[in-house]
């Protein structure tokens, strides 16, 4: 009864959410679907919820962001409940871990170090602290600790940043652009002579170098591609609207007509910018 009272207490806060998850996972009385889940099956939902948080922020939908942050918090609670059941960790130990980490990584706020330094210097100090943390985990190689589950473009940039710390990097963007031209040429050749697997490898090489160019230009490639996706969506919607005004659908049109409408949408956007 006490547990039921907490579950139905609208002001129960974090203890309420933890109890809800514990009850959902209860082998005898919980939800069959929730009971069947494990870390591997929940991980994709965690990634999805993080993207939905980013999407709400991009759209500046603060009311929706509140709900999405709750969904993301639930993912943390879900994983910590499973971790507790398996004896790996608990919600409290996870909170302690991140709190200790934040204090250790900000000696200029919580310790004796001076705050009188640039943001760039603080980033450098942060990286030194993280390198020391990796060393304690026996992550001694330069590229150790770059999460495999990151979006591929993001991981490419992080890998390249790590390599650049030990001077494995092109000195300027001209070398990167030359490499892009080289990789594009290899892809064209591969299209005619190699297997699909080999073509895929060449395409991956090209994307990797493009990500490197983004890093040299201080561009987030994921953000840039999201913007390009948004632009494509807007302009294709304009094509559909224009065709609709003519009583047609894209399937009833042709590439020449749609390409002209695309150019018109592009000019209109530029005129409004």
From TrEMBL:
It is an enzyme of class 3 (hydrolase). InterPro entries: MazG-like_dom (IPR004518), NTP-PPase_MazG-like_C (IPR048011), NTP-PPase_MazG-like_N (IPR048015), NTP_PyrPHydrolase_MazG (IPR011551). It catalyses: ATP + H2O = AMP + diphosphate + H(+). SUPFAM superfamilies: all-alpha NTP pyrophosphatases. It comes from the Bacteria. GO terms for molecular function: ATP diphosphatase activity. GO terms for biological process: dATP catabolic process; dGTP catabolic process; dTTP catabolic process; dUTP catabolic process; response to stress; TTP catabolic process; UTP catabolic process. Residues 37-110, 177-235 form the NTP pyrophosphohydrolase MazG-like domain. Its EC number is 3.6.1.8. Belongs to the nucleoside triphosphate pyrophosphohydrolase family. NCBIfam families: mazG, PRK09562.1. This is Nucleoside triphosphate pyrophosphohydrolase. It comes from Yoonia litorea.
């Amino acid at each position: 009864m006490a547990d039921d009272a907490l579950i139905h207490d609208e002001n129960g806060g974090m203890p309420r959410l933890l109890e809800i998850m514990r009850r959902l996972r209860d082998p005898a009385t919980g939800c069959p679907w929730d009971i069947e889940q494990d870390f591997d099956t929940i991980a994709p939902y965690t990634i999805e919820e993080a993207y939905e948080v980013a999407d709400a922020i991009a759209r500046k939908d603060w009311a929706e962001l509140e709900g999405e942050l709750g969904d993301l918090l639930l993912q943390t609670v879900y994983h910590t409940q499973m971790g507790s059941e398996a004896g790996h960790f608990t919600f409290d130990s996870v909170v302690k871990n991140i709190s200790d980490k934040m204090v250790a990584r900000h000696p200029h706020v919580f310790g004796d170090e001076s705050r009188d330094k640039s943001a760039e210097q603080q980033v450098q100090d942060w990286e030194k602290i993280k390198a020391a943390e990796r060393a304690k985990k026996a992550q001694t190689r330069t590229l150790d600790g770059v999460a495999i589950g990151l979006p591929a473009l993001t991981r490419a940039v992080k890998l390249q940043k790590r390599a650049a710390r030990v001077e494995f990097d092109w000195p300027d963007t001209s070398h990167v652009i030359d490499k892009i031209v080289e990789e594009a040429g290899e892809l064209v050749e591969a299209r005619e002579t190699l297997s699909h697997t080999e073509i895929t490898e060449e395409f991956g090489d090209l994307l990797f170098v493009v990500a490197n160019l983004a890093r040299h230009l201080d561009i987030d490639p994921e953000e840039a591609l999201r913007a390009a996706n948004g632009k494509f969506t807007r302009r294709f919607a304009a094509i559909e609207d224009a065709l609709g005004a003519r009583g047609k659908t894209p399937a009833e049109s042709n590439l020449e007509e749609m390409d002209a409408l695309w150019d018109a949408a592009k000019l209109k956007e530029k005129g409004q910018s």
